[in-house]
Amino acid sequence: MLRELDRLVSDLAPKRSEGSHVVEAAPAPAVAEAPVGAILAREPLEEVPLDEPPATRPPTDVDGARDPGPAPRASLEDAPHAPPAVETPYAVTPYLEERLRLANVALGGFGAGLDDLDARSASLRETAQTLEQELRQAQRELDFLRGSARLEEERPLATAAPPRTFVDAGVERPPSPRVWSTGRVAPGEGALRGRPMAGAFGEYTTSRYNRTISDLKARRRRLATYTVAFAALISTGLLILTFLAREPMPPLYVAILPAVWMVPVPFFLASFLGTHRVLRRNHLNLPGP
Amino acid sequence: MRLRTVLFQVTAIGRNVGALDESVRSVLYWLRNTPGLPFRPLVWVVVEPEGFATSPKVYRALERDGAEVLVVPREYRTRLGTRGKARALQYACDRRRERGLSEPWAWVYHQDEETCVGQDTLLGIADFVRQRELLVGSGVILYPIDWVGNPSHVQELTRSYDDFRVLDSMTLPGNPTAGFHGSHILVRADVEDSVGWDARGYAPAEDLTFEIRLRARYGSVFGILRGFAYEKGAFGLYDQLRQRRRWVHGVLYAILRSRELPARRRLTVLYSALSWFSALPSVLVLAISVILHLGPVLYATGVFTGFIWVSMITGYVEGYRLHREYVVRRHGFWRLFAHGIAGAVVDVLAPWFALLTRPTMRDFISKDRPGAASTAAPASG
Known about the structure:
The structure holds two protein chains of two kinds.
Chain A: H1 2-25, H2 30-42, E1 61-62, E2 65-66, H3 74-77, H4 88-92, H5 96-115, H6 117-149, H7 155-158, H8 177-181, H9 189-192, H10 206-218, H11 220-245, H12 252-255, H13 259-262, H14 265-281
Antiparallel strand pairs in A: 1-2
Helix pairs in contact in A: 1-5, 1-6, 2-6, 5-6
Chain B: E1 5-12, H1 17-32, E2 40-47, H2 49-54, H3 56-64, E3 68-71, H4 85-98, E4 106-111, E5 116-117, H5 119-130, E6 136-138, E7 141-142, H6 151-171, E8 185-188, H7 189-195, H8 206-218, E9 222-224, E10 229-230, H9 237-257, H10 263-277, H11 279-292, H12 297-323, H13 333-356
């Protein structure tokens, strides 16, 4: 057990310093972000309901009881909270400040949790996971904003994809709600409860979408070939049966009945051609987040 | 320069509170977990007063978490006096105008109460709003939510694969096979508000009417919205039947009462309806052909029979493959096969059922999982 805890401490220790670095570095690039701020300043944006100031959300309301939470370590709590350099972050990414705040809270909780490691190792792992995720996402938002700031008017929006290094950063798997709703309250967890929880929709990720679409596109030719081949096979079989039956021509009022089978034929043909045209002509995959 | 804004708008009666809650939370969840989206998001929930009254607690919780709930006032009347969902959609148009959101930099993403989004949906939207030429986007809808593999759910699989046909048709001039959605569509706000949803009386398929008008006014401005939307099928065969009945009445409404429908387009819509109506007679003729002995007539019809059969089976197989990444519960082949036939029978009967009965404006199709409380607790505090 002690060996496992030692390993955990050593695993997490570098992340803490890395996280502190990111938090402190956040407000730095005033020069890079100035142009966007200047542009937006000319046309102020409307208030967005989603970017509710983080301070308005009750930070420590856990299961109806106020949980003051353990006091964060002074060194982490005192990390500078410089104001954002421009207005852009609130409009483009309404969660940036919240992320940094959450990351700070989680960091504080993480430090306190280390003191009580033997009793709280499970909760700490979750907190560390959240901390890592929030810092990573905050970093991505910062990168996104810095990238946007260099471009003008419409273009920042068109080319502001996050750097490739974070594409597979693993944001798709949210922490399981069950973990958050059972067991002991992890340090700083009260503040994290405000985040929207994932239902089944938490699994609807871009990688799954791309996999599904790629599979379909990969078998498109085969699908078309099989459709035509099986259709020909069935039709040939029916024609052979008709030939072998050697039945006489029925009366006209009966003979016209099968015309109803022909009604949807153009629709099915158009459907077949259209489906394959869409799959052939369009690049339906999405770039990673 | 104005920053692009995407308004996620869930428009519904609002009585399927659990489904609606999940839909809105899917938006909130993925907005938060997809950093770097190049638009400003807004979330609107537009519901009827009786829907809101079903569970005010849930709606309040959604408001607390960032959505804005707009309850359509009972006394609200449109210019042409439309009713049903079109009335609520028109109400949202009016509110957008009031708030200065009816602009080229604003987009409206339409959701039904059971339309959940994924990370891919948001990235697809982000991708679409970057371009300037296309004014409306629509994409493929999957039906994995609460999928239990019952006949209605198996039948829905075919709709997902059929969506590729819909996308092709929609992006072609004239929409030759009449394809469109009422949900998982992204429309530029100024365009939507200029066309509007108002109609005389009750339009059972307001989405079709909207598409016809928009195409008549702006031409072929429809594009493919990448990323799936995630919905759920009806939980029972009768609900499936009533849902289809509404579609059929929508098509008939468009054919008979839509003045904006050009003659050529009217023909294509009529033909699509006719194809659907022909399903039941086709089955009946197939059944009696055993007794009647059609003889040499089958030389003519047999050529295409194979193609139609294979196309229908492909719809189920490929529909299932599209869902394979998402559905949890799996059944054996024969059970799915039997369910597929049962679901297909309902679709075959639906247009004729629609001729004999009428949908009502308040037709309520439950989208909350049977047994789930209608007053779903909020998922986050």
